[in-house]
Design a protein that fits this description.
Length: about 240
Amino acid sequence: MNTALSTLIAEIILSQTGSLSNTLQKLNFYGRGGLLENIYWVFILNMALMAILAVFDPEYIVKWIQRYVVRKQGKKNKVTQMEANLLHEGPVLDMPDQYAGIIRVVLLTTFYSAAIPFAFIISVLGLAVIFWVDKYMLLRRMAFPKFLNNETTESMIEYLEWAAASFSVGNLIYFYTLRNSDDELAFSDTHSVIPWATFIVSMLHVNLPMEAVNKKTISCQKSASFSSRFQSGSSKIPN
């Protein structure tokens, strides 16, 4: 909401002229200095900042400075063994926050992808960089992360279901605002059945109990979970 819609809502408020439909048609979406030009830079900065903030973590920098000061003092320092252990322990990787960042990228991309197809390429490259940065941080710098239960993963999957709804909403907005080279509405003579049908189907997918529907319509063989096999002493890793 904060990343994708704040700029859009501000633009709508500043350009308010009568009904919402008239306001959307008069917005500067595609021109120089318009909404999409600003959002393009939001994509790039969003990807870059996630990686930069992970590498230059303030908590890690503070600990690094403290360790340097202690080593500089040598035998004169009064740090206990426990304090030294804590000082040399890296910050804990906040996995829920990492999940939230990925979800934000996905929803932001789908919302603006109808007008900025290049956003998919930026996001894929950005997520690849974030993956390798997080992997390096986890293996080389961070402390062992807290235990994650299935609830966190399931919540992330449920939020990802909003990707189709996010795309359909963005597609509707650009359907009513896109202008051609003659500065005329590009879809003024086109029926809006498909964009609205996409929106309705995506909202149904989000709100209907899709897990129950899938279980009734799709048959799949149930296998023992990894945790149950591990607890039973089996050394064979499931496929």
